[in-house]
Amino acid sequence: MTMGTNRMQKTYRAMVIKAPGHLEFVERPVPVPGPNDVLISIEACGMCGADINDIARVDPGGHQPRVPGHEVVGRIVALGDRAPSIWRLDQRVGVGRLGGHCTECSACRQGKFNLCRNQHFVGSTCDGGYAEMMLARATGLVSIPDELKSEEAAPILCAGIATFNALKKCGAEAGDLVAVLGIGGLGHMALQYARKMGFKVAAIGRGQDIAQDALAIGAHVYIDTNIENAAEKLNGMGGAKAIIATIALADTISPLLGGLAPEGRLVMLGTSKDPLSIASGLLVAGERGVIGSITGSPYENERTLDFSVLTGVRPKIETVPLERAAEALQKLKSGDVKFRIVLTMH
Question: What was the pLDDT predicted at 141?
Fold first, then answer.
C-alpha cells in the first residue's frame, strides 16, 4: 500500500444509517485499502433522490451501519498495491453510483462495464460518501477536471451522467424535439444537456412554479400537465423524437407515449415497481420504443464532465455541511430543493 507523506489521521466522521430512515453521526477508524482499492479523503458528496430509498432500508447483510451517498469527490490519500498507475496520491477523483466493475464477468469481458454483474452500488451495497473518508474500487474511479469545483462535479457523477447518457441513447438528432419529464435534480441537468446538444427542448412539469426556472435553464417551451394535455401538445409540435422520463410515476408517463413521433423513444431513468400501461399499437404502427438507461462507466462519466466543462453546464446546488446531513435529507424528501444539495466535509 502507498500512502501520502502527511501523517494519516486515525479516525474519520461519517453519517450512517442507524435505523430505517434515520441517520446518525459517528466516528470510525480510518480503513486500509485492499490491493485493488484506494482510500479517498472526501471533499463533497451530492445528495440524490435514490439516497432516500437507500436510507429507508437497512442492508441485512451489513456488518455495520451503511454510509449512504454516491456522488463523491475527493483526493486519493492511500493506494492499494495493485491500483493502476494512472491513479496517484493527492489526485482529485470521483465515484458515482456504479462503484467499480469486476473485469471478470461476461458483461465486463464485452466491455459493458456499466452492466457488470458484480458491480458495487455505492451507498447501497458498499459505503458511500456521507463521510470524510471512503474506500473505493480503483475500477470505479473518475478523474475530475481542474475547471470544476468539487461541489459542482459531485452531482454530475450521477444526475449528470444519467441524463447525458440517456440523451446520447435516445436516437434524436440536432434540431429534433426532445421532451424532459420531471424538472428536478435529474431534469434540470437534462434540460441543459439537451439544449447544448442542439435539440428543441420541451420541459414537462406539474404547475407553474417551476416554469420560469425550466425556461431559464434550457427549455424552449414548458408544458404544464395541470392545464395541458402533454401528448397533444407534443403532437402539435410535430411529435417528440425522444422523451426522457426522470421520474417513475407510471400514471404520468404512460399517457406521454402518445406524444412520441414515429420511431421515437421513451427513455426511462426513474425506477418503480408499478408497470407502465402501453398500447401495443403505438409501438408497432409507429415503430416507437421504450428503453431504460443506467448511468454509465467511469470513462463515460469523464466524457460527461468534459462536456460540462466545454459547454458550461453546471448543476444548480446548495451546499450543506456534513453534520447537517439529516436536516438536508428532510429537505430533500420535501421536494423543496432547487435543484441539488451537496454535502461538504471541511
Answer: 98
**Residue 280 included in any domain:** yes
Is the N-terminal amide bond of 121 cis, ω within 30° of 0?
Answer: no
Q: What is the per-residue pLDDT for 31?
A: 94
User: In this structure, is residue 150 part of a structural domain?
Assistant: no
> Alpha helices of 48-186 — where are they, by DSSP H?
49-56, 106-109, 150-155, 161-169
SS3 label, residue 300: helix
Q: Are 225 and 202 in contact (CB under 8 A)?
A: no
- On whether both 190 and 278 belong to a single domain, the answer is yes
Residue 32 identity: V
Give the number of C-alpha atoms closer than 13 A to the C-alpha of residue 211, restricted to the C-beta side.
11
Distance of CA 327 to the CA centre of its chain: 21
* Residue 205 located in a structural domain: yes
- Listing DSSP states for 228-245 in one string gives S-HHHHHHHTT-EEEEEE
Spatial distance between the Cα atoms of 189 and 63, rounded to a whole number of angstroms: 36
Residues of the chain below pLDDT 50? none
CA distance 99 to 343: 19
Residue 337 in any domain: the answer is yes
Predicted pLDDT at 57:
83
**What is the structure's pLDDT at 6?**
55
Q: What is the mean pLDDT of the chain?
A: 94
Residue holding cell 424528501?
333
Grid coordinates of 316: 444548480
Q: Is 48 exposed, middle or buried (0-12, 13-18, 19+ CB in 10 A)?
A: buried
C-alpha to C-alpha distance for 337 and 68, rounded to whole angstroms: 19
